[in-house]
Task: inverse folding
């Protein structure tokens, strides 16, 4: 069976308030071309389809379009699970219509799907969370575990070893595969461990509950969602394909990909990754002064780039200058970097503001850093004003 693995679409996600739906639409169109060209039998979408639990009509429209095109009128199988960003009920609302198109959307862990015809394929057997599929005369057993939160599992994680518990659920799930056919797991979790490619780095994700690679069962393919960077844990054939477009500036050093695997059974896979185009990269520029900033803004106006702009300056930018720079709608943020604190002081004194220098400082600091300056910072600021550096 030939599968295509994608995840973390985050449909409807914005960057500094700007929509990414056009990039997402381009990706979906490309994904359908890839599925066609590769003649895949089954598409696996490993969660975080939407960016939030209340997606916009635009995002939902794109999801339905994607489902319709990927399923190809029931010729291709499509299986979807919710991630931590999705509202499972909302995601699976189309299930009753989806069946005839060959689309299976899981809502909860341990959900038992109906046996029978889905689009052009058959669910021959169904277990709690698992299905035995026959599609284009090829068979596989697929065990799906939607994002296993405490609420979804109705368990108290403070009292259990989370990693072992998830490992046990998955092991029990695939034990239901009684045929000698490929075993596939799809889930949305945070896996830690060595990738087995000589890449011994352990990934960290701010205190998120992690499942150790060692606790994952031996199957033919584990389709993972949650981490936005592609990762291959080859010794367990567990894969994060990552998100299809970059969602933050620090992500852009990773290529965006989808994974294709032909599962021949008995852990014999042909694996291939397809690089995705970066339709609109997120780029940080640093320029000297407002004049250069305005020039850059004009020069890049027609470029397909999202821009974070840092401006080295020893004076405040005027409203007029900011307006000119912001004519380029791709500029997400303008960040002045002050090169001379003394001029900052003068600038304050030159304004007609009735506020004190300190009040202005607090306002500026709060605006640029999102928090009020600490007592120490305020004291340091006053000391700097006095010391006349
Ligand atoms: Mn996630």
Result:
């Amino acid at each position: 069976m030939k599968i295509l693995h994608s995840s973390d679409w985050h449909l409807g996600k914005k960057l500094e308030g700007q929509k990414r739906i056009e990039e997402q639409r381009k990706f979906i169109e490309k994904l359908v071309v890839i599925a066609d060209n590769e003649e895949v039998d089954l598409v696996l979408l490993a969660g975080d389809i939407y960016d939030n639990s209340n997606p916009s009509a635009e995002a939902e429209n794109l999801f339905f379009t994607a489902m319709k095109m990927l399923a190809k009128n029931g010729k291709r199988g499509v299986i979807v699970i919710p991630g931590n960003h999705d509202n499972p009920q909302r995601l699976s609302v189309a299930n009753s219509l989806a069946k005839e198109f060959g689309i299976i959307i899981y809502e909860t862990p341990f959900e038992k799907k109906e046996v029978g015809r889905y689009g052009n394929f058959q669910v021959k057997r169904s277990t709690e969370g698992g299905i035995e599929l026959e599609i284009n005369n090829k068979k596989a057993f697929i065990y799906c575990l939607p994002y296993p939160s405490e609420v979804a599992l109705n368990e108290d994680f403070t009292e259990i070893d989370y990693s072992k518990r998830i490992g046990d659920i998955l092991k029990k799930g695939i034990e239901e595969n009684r045929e000698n056919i490929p075993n596939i797991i799809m889930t949305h979790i945070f896996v830690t461990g060595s990738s087995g490619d000589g890449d011994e780095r352990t990934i960290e994700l701010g205190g998120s509950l992690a499942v150790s690679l060692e606790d994952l069962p031996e199957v033919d393919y584990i389709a993972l969602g949650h981490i936005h960077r592609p990762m291959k844990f080859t010794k367990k054939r567990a894969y994060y394909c990552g998100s299809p477009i970059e969602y933050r500036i620090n992500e852009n050093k990773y290529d965006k990909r989808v994974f294709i695997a032909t599962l021949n059974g008995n852990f014999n896979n042909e694996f291939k990754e397809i690089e995705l185009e970066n339709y609109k990269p997120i780029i940080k520029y640093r320029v000297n002064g407002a004049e250069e900033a305005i020039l850059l803004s004009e020069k890049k106006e027609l470029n397909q780039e999202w821009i974070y702009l840092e401006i080295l300056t020893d004076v405040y930018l005027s409203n007029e200058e900011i307006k000119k720079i912001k004519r380029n709608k791709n500029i997400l943020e303008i960040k002045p970097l002050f090169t001379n604190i003394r001029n900052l002081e003068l600038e304050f004194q030159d304004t007609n503001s009735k506020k004190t220098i300190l009040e202005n400082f607090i306002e500026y600091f709060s605006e640029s850093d999102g928090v009020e300056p600490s007592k120490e910072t305020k004291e340091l600021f006053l000391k700097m004003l006095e010391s006349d550096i």
Observations:
- The first helix runs from residue 21 to 38.
